[in-house]
C-alpha cells in the first residue's frame, strides 16, 4: 500500500514538473488553480458538483462580474463554465454507473439534476447512449458466485 502511495505521489510531482515547464501542456483546470479567483470556483465546483452552478453563482464565488468571469474562465480553462460543470458531472456519473448499482434517478439527484429525465438527456448528449444502456455496455459482467 505504501508503494502505491509513493508511486501516486511520484506521478503527481512528475506531472507538475512537466506542466510547469510548458504551461500550454497543462490541462485548463490545472492552470486555473494558479488563478486565485478561478481556483476558488474550481474547488467549490469539485466539492459540491450537485449545487446549482449558474454562471451568476460561479461569478459570485470568484468575486467577479459575470462577463469578466466567463471570459477569464474560457481563456484559462479553454471551455465555458457550463461545459466544465457538465463534464465534471458526467465524469461522476460514469463513475457511479460503473462502480455502484445506484439507479439513474439516484445518480441524477446526487449530481444536482432536477430529475432523472434531465440527467438522462445530458448523459445521452454527452455519451450517445442513455445511462442504463451505457452502464450495460461499459461495466464488466459480474460473475454469479
Summed up:
With 145 residues, the chain is an all-alpha fold.
Secondary-structure blueprint:
Layout: H1 2-21, H2 28-32, H3 36-47, H4 55-62, H5 66-77, H6 81-99, H7 104-110, H8 116-127, H9 131-138
Helix pairs in contact: 3-4, 4-5, 6-9, 7-8
Instruction: Give helix and strand order, one letter per element, not per position.
Output: HHHHHHHHH
Reported for the largest beta sheet, the result is: none
Low-confidence residue ranges: none
Quickly give the CATH architecture.
Orthogonal Bundle
User: What is the CATH domain class?
Assistant: Mainly Alpha
CATH superfamily: Homeodomain-like
Q: Span from first to last CA? A: 28 Å
Number of domains: 1
Helix content: over 70%
Quick one: how many beta strands?
0
The name of the CATH topology is Arc Repressor Mutant, subunit A
What can you tell me about this protein's structure?
The chain is mostly helical. The chain has a single domain (27-136), classed as Orthogonal Bundle (Arc Repressor Mutant, subunit A), CATH 1.10.10.60. 71% of the residues lie in helices and 0% in strands. The chain has helices at residues 2-21, 28-32, 36-47, 55-62, 66-77, 81-99, 104-110, 116-127, 131-138. The radius of gyration is 18 Å and the shape is globular. It starts with a helix and ends in a 7-residue tail after the last helix. The model has no long low-confidence stretch (mean pLDDT 87).
Fill in the keyword field for this structure.
145 residues; Arc Repressor Mutant, subunit A; 9 helices
Amino acid at each position: 500500500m505504501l508503494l502505491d502511495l509513493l508511486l501516486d505521489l511520484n506521478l503527481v510531482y512528475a506531472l507538475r514538473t512537466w506542466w510547469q515547464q510548458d504551461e500550454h501542456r497543462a490541462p485548463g483546470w490545472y492552470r486555473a488553480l494558479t488563478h486565485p479567483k478561478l481556483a476558488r470556483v474550481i474547488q467549490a465546483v469539485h466539492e459540491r458538483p450537485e449545487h446549482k452552478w449558474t454562471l451568476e453563482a460561479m461569478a459570485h464565488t470568484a468575486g467577479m462580474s459575470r462577463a469578466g468571469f466567463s471570459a477569464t474562465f474560457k481563456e484559462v480553462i479553454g471551455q465555458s463554465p457550463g461545459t466544465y460543470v457538465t463534464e465534471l458531472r458526467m465524469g461522476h456519473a460514469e463513475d457511479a454507473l460503473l462502480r455502484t448499482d445506484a439507479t439513474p434517478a439516484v445518480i441524477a439527484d446526487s449530481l444536482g439534476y432536477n430529475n432523472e429525465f434531465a440527467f438522462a438527456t445530458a448523459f445521452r448528449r454527452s455519451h450517445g447512449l442513455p445511462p442504463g444502456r451505457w452502464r450495460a455496455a461499459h461495466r464488466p459482467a459480474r460473475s454469479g458466485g
